[in-house]
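A reminder from the course coordinator: this example appears on the midterm review sheet, so study it carefully.

Given structure:
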């Protein structure tokens, strides 16, 4: 077994799923009152995607400890695993919010939507960032290594809930690696949310399907024509559009339905095919993943894996798995003792498994202690603002 062998990934995934199925993680279960309108296959998909990003970054972390450079390693599988998972996360976002706009006739409760997003993303994000900053200040000995004004600006950028990608703080090199550099995607999520009031116009009536289909086709055509390396913006936009297209297609009376067994086989074949592309951020993978995502939102469970109890539990805590993985990897791998034993592939993968177990435990705790109260607080704030607004309107009319 080597450092970049594929077999340990599947073995570790199986162990983590088995562990998540135990009563130890019952706290991750969603309360029955919050399960309305949820697509369980999509909930379960989140769990696999978040762990995919984690294992991708775990292999990058191994190289980072040797070279102090954060970047792709020699394994094509692990280099693609994280980016492909992020593209599908964007599809989920596009699908859920476009579905909401269609359901509400393009006129949702905007206050509730945006307040909900702030309190859904913000609390755990701030918890992760404040933990990261605590590590930075401890490691730098609580000394001021940059001008005070620079330090205030650096910390301030990190506290923007992901709107701005944070810089190095207080002279600590590669500060963002403490969060496994995952916060770049949150900025894209915010950009999508801010575009919703404009997109809402196209979601009204029957125009939403031709609009999103045309936009997706144009973006994919340009991406295929230009074939840029890296993370071209149009590819990321195409991922959101792929999720939106799935939502629009679900409303069509002649939407294609395939038996779960056949759909599961096709999904696995298409997922395998995505790893044959040189650049995961390109038109081909988006087309394949978009087809996979449509099959999943149409009822495909991938032989029941997406609707299993552990998958849904990990899906519910997937934001924590995604956001907190860097802190856990740092806690497990950065000691001088561990750096010595990671020269062995077996020991390295054993530590990766330990980090995975610790991560899902920490993510579950964060979900219960931080995320759920944050979501509840957001609902309270939104309802309070709306109630006071109604009271003012009644007083004015009276």
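Designed residues:
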């Amino acid at each position: 077994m080597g450092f970049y062998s594929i077999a340990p990934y599947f073995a570790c995934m199986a162990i983590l799923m088995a562990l998540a199925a135990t009563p130890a993680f019952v706290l991750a279960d969603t309360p029955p009152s919050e399960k309305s309108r949820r697509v369980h296959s999509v909930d379960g998909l989140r769990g696999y995607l978040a762990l995919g990003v984690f294992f991708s970054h775990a292999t990058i972390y191994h190289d980072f400890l040797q070279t102090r450079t954060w970047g792709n390693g020699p394994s094509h599988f692990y280099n693609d695993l994280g980016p492909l998972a992020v593209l599908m996360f964007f599809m989920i976002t596009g699908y859920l919010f476009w579905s909401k706009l269609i359901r509400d006739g393009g006129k949702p409760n905007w206050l509730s939507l945006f307040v909900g997003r702030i309190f859904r993303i913000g609390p755990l994000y701030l918890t992760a960032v404040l933990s990261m900053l605590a590590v930075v200040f401890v490691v730098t000995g609580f000394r001021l290594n940059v001008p005070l004004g620079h330090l205030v600006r650096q910390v301030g950028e990190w506290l923007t809930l992901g709107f701005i990608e944070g810089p190095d703080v207080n002279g600590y090199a590669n500060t963002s690696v403490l969060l496994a550099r995952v916060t770049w995607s949150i900025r894209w999520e915010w950009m999508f949310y801010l575009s919703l009031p404009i997109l809402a116009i196209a979601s009204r009536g029957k125009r939403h399907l031709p609009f999103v289909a045309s936009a997706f086709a144009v973006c994919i055509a340009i991406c295929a024509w230009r074939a840029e390396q890296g993370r071209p913006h149009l590819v990321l936009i195409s991922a959101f559009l792929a999720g939106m297209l799935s939502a629009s297609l679900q409303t069509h009376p002649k939407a294609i339905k395939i038996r779960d067994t056949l759909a599961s086989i096709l999904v696995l074949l298409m997922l395998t095919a995505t790893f044959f592309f040189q650049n995961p951020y390109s038109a081909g993978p988006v087309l394949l993943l978009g087809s996979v995502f449509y099959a999943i939102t149409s009822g495909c469970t991938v032989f029941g894996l997406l609707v299993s109890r552990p998958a849904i539990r990990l899906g519910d805590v997937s934001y924590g798995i995604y956001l907190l993985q860097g802190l856990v990897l740092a806690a497990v791998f950065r000691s001088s003792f561990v750096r010595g034993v990671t020269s062995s592939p077996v020991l390295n993968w054993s530590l990766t498994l330990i980090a995975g177990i610790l991560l899902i435990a920490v993510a579950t705790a964060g979900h219960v202690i931080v995320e759920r109260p944050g979501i509840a607080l957001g609902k309270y704030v939104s309802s309070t603002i709306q109630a006071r607004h109604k009271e003012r309107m009644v007083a004015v009319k009276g």
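DSSP finds 14 helices and no strands in the chain. The mean pLDDT is 92.
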